[in-house]
Amino acid sequence: MPAGYWIAHVAVTDEEAYGRYAKLAGPAIALHGGAFLARGGRYVSLEGQARARNVLARFPSVEAAEACYRSPEYQEALSHARGASERDLIIIEGV
């Protein structure tokens, strides 16, 4: 089964609240078999709208990635990111 990947582009507008999100999101992602491949760090924007924070997480499957997003643990984390960031998040299947 191909891996599933979260690709997130984030502009943080409230560092304190987003910090609470980050503290809870990592364990929720790990609980669902997810692992960060890139989290913040240096990037080069070549096309489209750039956001200062970019995240790539690998999951065992697209289904696992979606289950993580919909889980109570991640939704609790996400409650701190809402209003504290502008985010785009997609799940994509690996090859």
Automatic annotation (TrEMBL):
All residue ranges annotated as the DUF1330 domain in the record: 4-95
Pfam families: DUF1330
SUPFAM superfamilies the record matches: Dimeric alpha+beta barrel
Gene3D superfamilies the UniProt entry points to: 3.30.70.100
Protein name: DUF1330 domain-containing protein
